[in-house]
Amino acid sequence: MRVLSALTEIWRSRLFKLTISILLLTLSVIMFADFFKLRGDVDAGMRDARKAMSEALAVQLTVLAASSNEQAIRQTIDAFVSRSADVAAARLTTANGNALAASGELSSLTSDAESTQSQMIVPIFQNDRQWGEVRVAFTENQSLVKQIAHFGFIGVSCFVLYLLFLRKALNQIDPSQVVPGRVNNAFNLLSEGIVILDTKLQVMLANEAMGHIIGRPPGDLMGQHIDEWPWEFPDEAPAPWRIALDDGGTYASDEPLTLHTHDKQPRRLIVNCAVVGAGEDAKAKGLLVTFDDMTAIEKNNRDLQDALRLLKQSQVSIQEKNRELEALATQDPLTGVNNRRALLQRLANDFAKAMREDRPLSVIMVDIDHFKSINDTFGHVVGDDCIRVVANTLASQCREYDLVGRYGGEEFVVVLPDLTAQQAHEVAERMRLQIADAATDENLPLQEMTASLGVACTDSMPDDYMALIDHADQALYAAKQGGRNRSIVFDSRVTKLKPEAGATAEVESDRRSQKA
Known about the structure:
With 516 residues, the protein is α+β, with helices and mostly antiparallel strands. The chain has 16 helices and 16 strands. The radius of gyration is 58 Å and the shape is elongated.
């Protein structure tokens, strides 16, 4: 793994790329020189050499053929083929086509009438008459191997020499070598990406932070044009470094730029530019550009916004659940008005406030007349409907800050802050009449439905809120005893029912007699 990493680093290094580039240029020049035969005709020289070799063999065979020494002819051909690396086969034939001797790969011998690059034909004459001929076939692979070896030697040699030369030369021309070591180390310690550009906007120097942003070693950025990087400018605005170079001063980009790096992850960068060497009498020599990477910060901000959105959603959900729980804890499930617990808690607070501020507080206790008979006659479903109708009727006659609560069974309590006993009695009468009218609802199979109501106020001097409810309960009892379908105000001094209502019993005496 470490070796692979080292090889990758070498492959991506500027030194290796420059060496390969110059080497390819050198080989291209040599190949073009050979193509235009600037070194001479290499193939012609090879043909001449092969022709001379074949003619030398033909002279020897002519001498041996004159002495009719066939064994010596065969030995000579065998030795010629075996000792010549680029000779594939050789054959001596007479004019009538008889082969006197042959050696090597005879299939490489063709029947061509003229000599070629791969086969030489040398005639043998005797007494000015052609006696026979010698055919010699040559291998083409050897020529190709030599050419490959030739170019391989040139390539390897030039690569090593160029590598050593450029390594030495780049150390001399590398701008980073001009910067002192301690300054260069401090330059690389900066968290912001920094590049120094020339007047053509080509990178002269870059720190390690910039290399990290781009995703490449800082040395690979040398010589690149900064506009060639995959930038995304807002609203097709000009690049900030061009603005700074044109203005000859310092320019800070208010909006972040987006850079699409090699790993396809866009980078959000805040750019600041400053011209180097600019003055009243001096031209700009370059440009210093800093890049503050805001990618991680923006990601954290997005994550925080997502977390806040989820938290807000959770809060909304919790509030909804709390409202549901509060409704379950404070509302009567049948009627939707306050249950007994919520009713008494609110009444306790209102009673304490009324006593503290010396303001009146009235309570009405409501009971449906003959409710047991309704249940027995029409069933509990109709009874529940009657309870709901009465609860809605009571709520419709109340102010926004009044309170209606189910005290138990078919009994309700209405809390009326800031109302005297007389004002509360008027409200009770409206409620009684509305309940009687509600019996005509087509959803209720009743001929009539009435209610009795008892009214009590803090001017009766109750000890606490429960005593106030007890006063209303006593008044309700008097209404029941007085014939029902009426409202009675509790009065510790006057407890008789109104004469026109037909009642003569006192509240306290009636309750005592009832108990007896």
